[in-house]
Amino acid sequence: MTEYLVASDRSPSTPKPAPRPIFVIGAARSGTTLLQAMLGAHPSIAALPEMHFWFRIVNLSDYWGDLSDPSRRRAALLELINLPGGLLDRFGFDIARLMADVPSGPVGYGSLLETVGLDLCQREGKARWSEKTPWQTADQIWQLFPDAQVIHLIREPRRTISSTLGTPFNDLPAWKLAEQWDRYTVANIRSGIGRGPQYYLQVRYEDLVGSPTATLGLVCSFLAEDFESSMLTQRQETTAVFTGRPAWQAAATGPLRTAVTEEPRLGAADRALISLSIRRNAAALGYQTPRRRTIAAGYALWPTTVPARLNGKIRDRRHAALSPVGRYEVVNRYTRERVAAAIGPPRFEPAQPGAVSQPEPRQVASARTGLPAQTAV
Predict the structure, then answer these.
(1) Residue 137: inside a domain
(2) How far is residue 37's CA from residue 33's CA, in Å, rounded to a whole number?
(3) What are residue 130's phi and psi, to 5 degrees?
(4) Phi and psi, residue 200, nearest 5°
(5) d(CA 103, CA 16)
(6) What are the beta bridge partners of residue 22?
(7) How far apart are CA 77 and CA 368, in angstroms?
(8) d(CA 157, CA 142)
(9) Within-domain flag for 253
(10) Lower CB density within 10 Å: C or N end of the chain?
(11) Please, which residues bridge with residue 25 across strands?
(12) What residues are paired with 200 via a beta bridge?
């Protein structure tokens, strides 16, 4: 799947015409939208909304194929700038303009997101762009953007998981979220330490909301940008949130809470199972270590998770065995279902003049391959 990904993307030694891209990474509900909104309020930084670039595009590179083919490049770009529910409607991305802006010569997958980011920069009169999507990893980013600066936002794990459980788009149990949080957090910290302080910065959510000026000063120093008070006062004007400012992103542009006092809304069983995953690393990150009796209860409850684990392995094997078209359709359907759960059923509105409508999966498949979608491989 990586044969199309690296060769045509920039390397650290290659002269680049644009400043270094910025990526905010972190688990879902860890405050990444808030930080992205703050960055977007900086006069030099254009903040993209969640593009889900790796999930929808890069991880399906064997579906989209070689982007040197203009028809495949157009299909992938069209997919990138459209999300179900009109979530990207207000951002003014135009497929014809983007196609004209894609760099000449061999085209790597990173060029797609870079073209979209630079397009937003040009229209906002800013110098560099930032993107954030939950669960993207630093290693994924550096594979396509070797000179990217990555800001890793970490939030207290029990509060993160409790907040995620309260969202309409979550479909994972608390114990699974805890395992995912621990693996993701540790892996990105290790990658960041290995990459070095010019490429990676770790920030705690609690510091961001508790001491926003000082923490943003640290962030701006890492980015080699001046701190601007607009990062605190003009977040409501940011492009970092989706069209309509859905409920789960509302806090990113609302009044800034300067204290974190709410307790995680977790039952005893969830707390016990979560403790098994976070017990090793919580203290090192500045968070309370679970009590021994809570951990012991987690061990007693662990067998109850076995059926779900086995089902998950079966589901993963089936997904891996799908054709590229089959995996694309699974990802597309999953995205639509999650968006529908979060904002309601999809809207069917007449396309506005000049607007780019969301292509149906089989239409995209045909555009990409030139074959009937059901026979595409």
Answers:
(1) yes
(2) 6
(3) -135, 145
(4) -140, 135
(5) 12
(6) 130, 149
(7) 11
(8) 25
(9) yes
(10) C
(11) 152
(12) 150
* Cβ atoms of residues 51 and 99 within 8 Å: no
Rg (CA), the chain: 21
Residue 177 lies in a domain: yes
CATH of the domain at 32: 3.40.50.300
Residues of the chain with pLDDT under 70: 1-18, 105, 236-255, 257-263, 344-377
Spell out the long-range contacts of 8-11 with Cβ–Cβ below 8 A and sequence spacing 24 or more: 8/105, 8/106, 8/107, 8/108, 8/111, 9/108, 9/109, 9/110, 9/111, 9/144, 9/145, 9/146, 10/110, 10/145, 10/146, 10/147, 11/146
Distance (Å, whole) CA 36 – CA 16? 24
- Please report which helix (H) or strand (E) contains residue 278, including its range: helix 268-278
91-106 b/e with 16+ CB inside 10 Å = b? bebeeeebeebbeeee
Q: Which of 266, 248, 242, 309 is nearest to 86 (CA)?
A: 242
- Note the pLDDT tens digit of each residue in 237-264: 666 666 555 555 566 666 676 555 566 7
> d(Cα 265, Cα 313) in Å, to the nearest integer?
29
Look-up of token digits 């409920």:
247
149-154/128-132 β-pairing: unpaired
Burial class (CB in 10 A: 0-12, 13-18, 19+), 174: buried
CB atoms within 10 A of CB 261: 5
Q: What is the pTM of this model?
A: 0.84
Count: domains in the chain: 1
CA-closest candidate to residue 144, choices 220, 65, 224, 61? 61
What DSSP character marks residue 375? G
What is the domain range of residue 184? 22-264
**Look-up: residue for tokens 């919580």?**
282
Distance between CA atoms of residues 174 and 316, nearest Å: 19
Question: Buried b / exposed e across 301-324, counting CB within 10 Å, b at 16+?
Answer: beeebeeeeeeeeeeeeeeeeeeb
Sheet arrangement for strand 149-154: 45-47, 128-132, 22-25, 149-154, 200-204
Helical spans, DSSP H, in 14-91: 32-40, 53-56, 61-64, 70-80
pLDDT in tens, 198-220: 999 999 999 999 999 999 999 99
Burial of 335 (0-12, 13-18, 19+ CB in 10 A): middle
